[in-house]
């Protein structure tokens, strides 16, 4: 513990790793482009510069706090310095802000307004580089890149992939995939984590808004929508609701006003996944084949495993993800049971950009039809709600539609790391007693660490479990499984750190407070759920006795040999 003086006020510090963190703790929101608390410090943007009592100017992100330091954060010299940086960045920036996807949420734009940059003296003579729209998940616009390196470090340090790199030197420097390939030609898994940290419009979500609006207004089409677990505790960020608040009811009300015909919950699909995945785990434990069982609900992880560890891909569960199970079920119901002659279109609202690629995989077609037709991220749906002139915050909450509008707390926690495992264990322990539920939650599967381990007794057997979040952590675990250094029976992997709550399609920024609130938000939904186990969901039970009978494999599993 020590103290420093910031703008004439005494501030204590303890574990803070740099001066910037102490300044922020003291309530001053010092601007940065390139600092993220969970990434390595790059110190390139120089926006967080401060001045000490001897007139020395330094980047506060790169300096450790020292006892007795005296610093100033907003002297005329610093103001001039920051404005100059912004002006130089804007000088080589494509400034079509009004039509930019990041308009309104761009850090460069926000800081230009905040720091009063009203005029740019320099011409942008740089030749325009074409957009890279080769991915189903993200769009790259190199003309908007400010070379902060956030995407480069995220892809390398969190995802262990290193798809994006710096290329060329000096004023020709760019961020791009190796050998200037298009992103769709690389092993990019579409997780969108580079988009989450990108402060400008250089990396944005591949939008699917226009076709969905057209379908909503097509009277020959019935548009059914499903809402993923992690959307409800994040969408409120865009409408001024408290962080982590469950806005499902308000979102349902908004979607009805926008014209969606039926509104369901992917948590119900998650209940189906729990039923099938727990069965598959028991079968593999009995046969001893293809252990560990890897979860299959995160498409970025599935692609990563297929690309990087093809010899282990046969361990991936044959279960479709909750989104895909539910999509296949909705389409089957439309084919079999409905008198409605309209064509059924299934739209998913997801926190995830990789889900946009998942729906296009060939195994996600049933009877010649694509199971899910469009994925809209939380960010896109927020935009649509605003386009429709609806203020989500003001709406009275409404209920989901039936017959698929009931789900368990186990389905809800899928959106946070460890949730899939906890849900599967609840099903296998098959007890809704508070003590048993608590015992599962205390096995070590909750928490934000990249790799968590647990050993659980199921019947006669000790089951070894790993819960992994972030692909870099996944890669480390996979190498040890491959070499025989580690053994597990069940491995849950979510590509994004902390799970889908920080998915590539979620509202940004996602700072430490937001992450914590979103995790707590999902657990709160579970705490309030009367049904805790997927197998106790009455609709799930009736489906297995009815429409799903004999079709479990066709609708709920993938028919691919890995
Ligand atoms: Fe997820 Fe899943 S939890 S993958 O993070 O298994 O996207 O929210 O919808 O499918 O249910 C995402 C979230 C989501 C699926 C479920
Ligand atoms: Fe890397 Fe994910 Fe971005 Fe692809 S989407 S470049 S894998 S961070």
From TrEMBL:
It is found in: Membrane. Residues 136-166, 179-208 form the 4Fe-4S ferredoxin-type domain. GO terms for molecular function: 2 iron, 2 sulfur cluster binding; 4 iron, 4 sulfur cluster binding; ferredoxin hydrogenase activity; iron ion binding; NADH dehydrogenase (ubiquinone) activity. The keyword Translocase applies. It comes from Mediterraneibacter butyricigenes. GO terms for biological process: ATP synthesis coupled electron transport. Residues 77-116 form the 4Fe-4S His(Cys)3-ligated-type domain. Its cofactor is [2Fe-2S] cluster; [4Fe-4S] cluster. SMART domains: NADH-G_4Fe-4S_3 (SM00929). CDD domains: fer2. PROSITE patterns: 4FE4S_FER_1, 4FE4S_FER_2, 4FE4S_HC3, COMPLEX1_75K_1. This is Ferredoxin. The keyword Repeat applies. Belongs to the complex I 75 kDa subunit family. Keywords: 2Fe-2S, 4Fe-4S, Iron, Iron-sulfur, Membrane, Metal-binding, NAD, Repeat, Translocase. One of its GO terms (cellular component) is membrane.
């Amino acid at each position: 513990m020590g103290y420093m003086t910031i703008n004439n006020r005494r501030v204590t510090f303890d574990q803070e790793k740099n001066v910037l963190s102490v300044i922020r703790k003291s309530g001053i929101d010092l601007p940065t482009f390139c600092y993220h608390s969970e990434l390595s410090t790059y110190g390139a943007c120089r926006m967080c510069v401060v001045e000490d009592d001897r007139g020395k100017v330094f980047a506060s992100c790169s300096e450790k706090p020292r006892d007795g330091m005296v610093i100033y954060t907003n002297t005329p010299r610093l103001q001039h310095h920051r404005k100059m940086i912004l002006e130089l960045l804007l000088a080589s920036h494509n400034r079509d802000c009004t039509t930019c996807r990041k308009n309104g949420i761009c850090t460069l734009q926000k800081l230009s307004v905040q720091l009063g940059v009203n005029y740019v003296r320099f011409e942008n003579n740089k030749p325009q580089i074409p957009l890279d729209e080769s991915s189903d998940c993200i769009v790259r616009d190199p003309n908007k890149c400010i070379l902060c390196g956030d995407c480069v470090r995220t892809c390398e340090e969190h995802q262990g992939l290193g798809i994006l790199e710096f290329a060329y030197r000096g004023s020709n420097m760019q961020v791009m995939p190796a050998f200037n390939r298009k992103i769709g030609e690389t092993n990019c898994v579409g997780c969108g984590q580079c988009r989450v940290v990108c402060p400008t419009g250089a990396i944005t979500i591949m939008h699917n808004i226009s076709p969905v609006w057209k379908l909503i207004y097509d009277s020959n089409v019935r548009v059914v929508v499903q809402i993923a677990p992690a959307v409800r505790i994040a969408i409120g960020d865009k409408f001024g609701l408290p962080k982590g608040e469950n806005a499902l009811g308000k979102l349902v009300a908004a979607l009805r006003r926008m014209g969606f015909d039926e509104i369901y919950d992917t948590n119900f699909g998650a209940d189906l996944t729990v039923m099938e995945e727990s069965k598959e785990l028991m079968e593999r434990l009995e046969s001893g084949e293809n252990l560990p069982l890897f979860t299959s609900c995160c498409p970025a992880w599935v692609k990563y495993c297929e690309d990087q560890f093809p010899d282990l891909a046969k361990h991936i569960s044959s279960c479709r993800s909750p989104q895909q199970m539910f999509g296949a079920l909705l389409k089957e119901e439309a084919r079999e049971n409905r008198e409605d002659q309209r064509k059924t279109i299934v739209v998913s609202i997801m926190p995830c950009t990789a889900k946009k690629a998942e729906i296009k995989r060939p195994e996600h077609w049933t009877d010649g039809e694509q199971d899910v037709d469009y994925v809209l991220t939380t960010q896109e749906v927020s935009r649509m709600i605003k386009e429709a002139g609806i203020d989500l915050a003001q709406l009275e909450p409404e209920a989901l539609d039936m017959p698929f509008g009931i789900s368990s707390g186990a389905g809800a926690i899928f959106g946070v790391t460890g949730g899939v495992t906890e849900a599967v264990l609840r099903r296998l322990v098959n007890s809704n007693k508070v003590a048993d539920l608590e015992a599962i939650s205390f096995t070590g599967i909750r928490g934000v660490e990249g790799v968590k381990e647990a050993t659980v007794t199921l019947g006669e057997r000790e089951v070894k479990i790993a819960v992994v979040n972030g692909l870099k952590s996944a890669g480390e675990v996979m190498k040890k499984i491959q070499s025989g250094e580690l053994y597990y029976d069940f491995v849950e992997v979510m590509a994004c750190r902390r799970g889908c709550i920080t998915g590539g399609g979620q509202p940004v920024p996602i700072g430490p407070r937001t992450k914590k609130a979103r995790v707590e938000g999902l657990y709160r939904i579970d705490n309030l759920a009367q049904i805790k186990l997927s197998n106790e969901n009455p609709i799930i039970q009736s489906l297995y006795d009815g429409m799903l009978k004999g079709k479990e494999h066709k609708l709920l599993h993938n028919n691919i040999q890995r």
